[in-house]
Amino acid sequence: MFKQKFRNRHPYMFIAPAVTLLIIFSIIPITIAFFISFTDLDLKGLANWSNISWIGFDNYQNLFADDTFIKSIFNTLFYVVIGVPLVIICSLGIALMLNYGSNKLFSMFRSVYYMPSITNIIAVAVIWGYLYNTEYGLFNYILSLLSVENIPWLQEPTIAKISLIILAVWKGIGINMIIFLAALQGIPRAYYEAAKIDGANRIQTFFNVTLPLLRYATFFVTVTTLIGWMQFFEEPYVMTQGGPLDGTLSIALFIYQEGFQFSEFGYAAAGSFVLFIMIIIITLIQFKLRKSDTEY
Amino acid sequence: MASIHSTKGKTEKTLITVLMIIGGILVSIPFIWMITSAFKPESEALRIPPTILPENPTLDNFKHLFTELNFLVYLRNTLIIVAFSFVGLLFNGMAGYGFAKFAFKGREKIFYLVLATMMIPGQVTMIPVYLLLNGMGLTNTLPGIILPGLVAAFSIFLFRQFMGTIPTDLIEAARLDGAGEFYIFFRLIIPIAKPIFAVQGILAFIGAWNSFLWPLIIANDESLYTLSVGLSLLQGQYGNNFALQMAGAAFMVVPIIIIFAFFQKYIVEGFTMSGIK
C-alpha cells in the first residue's frame, strides 16, 4: 500500500525539474509582463517599488502614437512579406534538387546547404558585415568588375532591409529544406508511377502530386517561419542597430532597445504584447485558411 | 525508375547536379571568405582588388584573440554553458519520459501548459525574466545566464514522442524484477532512447555554443561574456580590422562545422524520426 503511493509520486519527480523551470521562466514571466505593461515601471521603479504607478492603457496608446514603433511594424511586415516566401521557395527548390539523386555528392551538398542554419548568428553578422562593406567588401568588388557603382548595402534604409533579408534567407533555408526533404522522401513511389501511367508530364506531376502531398510540410514551414520572422531581431541588432534612420528597426529590436537601453520596462512590455497579439492573429488566420482547403 | 535512365534523364541529372554545385558554392562563399581572410594580415584584408588566397598566411589574428583579447575567458564561459545544457537535456528527457510513460493526475493539463510555452515569443518574457533574475540577485552571474534557457518545451515534446514508442511491457518487466524507477530510467530507458538523446544532444550543444541573448542581457562584466558576446564586442571595437574579425568568427564557426560533419547523419535522421514530416 505504501509502495503504491510512493510509486505515484514518481511521474511528478520526473517532470518536476523541467516543468518548474518552464513555470519560472515562461509562465510566471508572461503574467508579470502583462501586469507591468499597464505600469510606468522604469529604473526608478526598479529601485523603489513605490515609484511604480498604474497607468492603464497609456503605454498602449503611446505606442501607437510613437512614430518609431509604427516604423518598426512597417519594417517587420516588409521583412515578413518578402522574406518568408523567399525562404519557402528557396528551401523547397533546394529540397527538390537534393531529392533528385542519392549518391555521396548529393548528401555532401545537403550538408553544405544546411550549414548556414547552424552557424552562430553573430559570426554570420560579422562575416556578412565584411562582405557588405561599401569600400572593402567582396560584393562591391565583384559588382565593380561588372562596372556597377558601389552599392550602399547597409547605409540606405530600403537597401539595408533587403541586405538583411538576403542574409536571413541564406541562414533560414537549411532547417526548412530538411523538413521538405523528409516529406519528399515520405511520398510513396507508387503515386508517381500512377501519374506516369496516366500520362502526366513533369510539371503536371509536380503541381498535382508532389505539391499537394507536401501540404502538411509546407504548412508547418510557413507557420514556423512566419513566427520566426515576426521576431526578427539578431540580424538588425548586430549589423545595423536598427539604423540607418530606424530603417531596419524591427518590433523585437524596438522592444529590446526600450527595455534594456532606455530601461522603459513597462513601455517595452506593452510593445511585446502588441507583438504577441500580432503573432497570434497571423497564426490563427493561417490555421483558418488551412481548414478551408482540407476538402481537397 | 529504370525507364527514366534514358539520354533525356541523364542530361537532366547532369543539369541538376551542376545547378546544385553552383548553388552550393554560392551558399559557401561567406564561409570560404571567412576562412581565407582569417589568415591574412590586417592590411591584406583591406586590399582592393582583394586576394582570394592569403599571400602571406599568418596565424597572428588567432594569437591576437587569445593574448591581447579575452577569448580564452569567453571560451571557458561558453563551455560551462554547454556543459549545463546537457543537464537541461537530461531534464527534458526525464520530463518527456514522465509524460509518455506514466498515467498521473493532471498529465494532459500540465503537458498542454508545456506546449503553450512554445507559443510565447522570447521578447515577451525577456523583460520579466530579467526583472525576476534581478530580484533573485542573479544578474551578472553565470547561473543567471544558464537558467533561463535550460529547458525547452519543444525538446520535451520530441522526447515524449520518442519515449511513447518504447514498449510499456519492457518497463513493467523491469519493475517486476524490483528495479527502482530512476534505475529503470538511467539503465534501461536512456540506452534505448540513445538516438533521440544524440540528436537533442547535438542540437543542445549547438544552441549553447551559439547562445547570445541571455549572456548579452545578464552579463555586465567582460569576465562573464560568451564567445558570441565577445565577438560582437570585437566587431564594435575593431571595426575595420576585418582579418581579426574573421579569425574570431572562424573560431566560433569551425568547431560547429566539424561537429556537424561528424554527426550530420543523426541530425537529419532526427528530423525524420521526430515525425515533423
TrEMBL record, chain A:
It is a multi-pass membrane protein. Residues 73-286 form the ABC transmembrane type-1 domain. CDD domains: TM_PBP2. It is found in: Cell membrane. Keywords: Cell membrane, Membrane, Sugar transport, Transmembrane, Transmembrane helix, Transport. GO terms for cellular component: plasma membrane. The chain crosses the membrane at residues 12-36, 77-100, 112-131, 162-184, 205-230, 265-287. The keyword Lipid metabolism does not apply. Belongs to the binding-protein-dependent transport system permease family. This is Multiple sugar transport system permease protein. It comes from Virgibacillus chiguensis.
From TrEMBL, chain B:
CDD domains: TM_PBP2. The chain crosses the membrane at residues 15-36, 79-99, 111-133, 145-163, 242-263. It comes from Virgibacillus chiguensis. It is found in: Cell membrane. Belongs to the binding-protein-dependent transport system permease family. Keywords: Cell membrane, Membrane, Sugar transport, Transmembrane, Transmembrane helix, Transport. This is Multiple sugar transport system permease protein. Gene3D superfamilies: MetI-like. GO terms for biological process: transmembrane transport. InterPro entries: MetI-like, MetI-like_sf. Residues 74-263 form the ABC transmembrane type-1 domain. GO terms for cellular component: plasma membrane.
